[in-house]
């Protein structure tokens, strides 16, 4: 008898037995659906006139009104009655502010309800907690691809582009590469982690394999804070020409007895220094390519210095 009386005098408790959000990872600046199920854990007592209010935990910098906003409703709702062991499901559409930090927000469900004890109506207050993970959308801005001209089959062509992290989250495993009918062995650029607000410059060489117009893609791949992989493609076109053969200014059929000589000229004085000229030309081309690369690297460093300032 005494045990039965103790059971009857027990205050009934409410818990959140289940909850979920759709989508599971809530994106800042977008709506989401919150599903909740409330359970009366008491085996003998009913609950009535229950009011439930949702607020973000006070430990968070933001308040409930500034992070999650109910869409066409309020953050308070009402349940008329819950019998012992009974559950009730509620669904709310909520909006997340665009500048919410990427983290899990602790939400409090505040319960205020009535129950009967010794033929008297009493009130009780409780709370339960659950978390809502919020992520920021990853944003990578890229410029159009610049292709150096003229382009010749079998000769390197330089492609370049600038890119910026304009989002509110760090990008991970950022990789840039060229796809297309080219020799792209030197086109990969692994950036890795790309911090918020950073800017960088892509500059690499590719080699056309055939004459005419060939389309290619400059591909950016990276992961956001939730581990989801993203891919951005920028199309470009290379118009390659056949490399012109080096013409001999003194055809052999002009001087069959002594190729490469004018009539009446001695062999010692008529030899043209072809080897030094060829070596000099190769060195000149190398210097030009080196200057182009150094200028582009200098521009990339200036971009990074401007960002640091």
CATH architecture of the largest domain: Sandwich
Number of helices: 4
Helix/strand/pairing category? alpha+beta
Major β-sheet annotation? 5 strands, mixed
- Helix proportion of residues, in percent? 10-25%
CATH level-4 homologous superfamily of the largest domain: Immunoglobulins
Spans of at least 5 consecutive residues whose pLDDT stays below 50 are 265-272
List keywords for this structure.
309 residues; alpha+beta; Immunoglobulin-like; 2 domains; 5-stranded mixed beta sheet; 49% strand; rod-shaped
Describe this protein's structure:
By secondary structure, the chain is of the alpha+beta class. The protein folds into two domains: 2-135, Sandwich (Immunoglobulin-like); 140-308, Immunoglobulin-like, CATH 2.60.40. It has helices at 2-8, 64-67, 267-270, 274-308; strands spanning 14-22, 26-27, 31-40, 47-56, 68-70, 76-82, 87-96, 103-117, 120-135, 140-142, 146-147, 151-152, 157-165, 171-180, 182-183, 189-194, 199-208, 212-223, 229-241. It has a five-stranded mixed beta sheet. Strands 10, 11, 13, 15 and 17 form a five-stranded antiparallel beta sheet that branches. A hairpin with a 5-residue loop joins strand 18 and strand 19 (229-241). The N and C termini lie far apart (79 Å).
SSE arrangement:
Elements: H1 2-8, E1 14-22, E2 26-27, E3 31-40, E4 47-56, H2 64-67, E5 68-70, E6 76-82, E7 87-96, E8 103-117, E9 120-135, E10 140-142, E11 146-147, E12 151-152, E13 157-165, E14 171-180, E15 182-183, E16 189-194, E17 199-208, E18 212-223, E19 229-241, H3 267-270, H4 274-308
Parallel strand pairs: 2-9, 12-19
Antiparallel strand pairs: 1-3, 3-7, 4-6, 4-8, 5-7, 8-9, 10-13, 11-13, 13-17, 14-16, 14-18, 15-17, 18-19
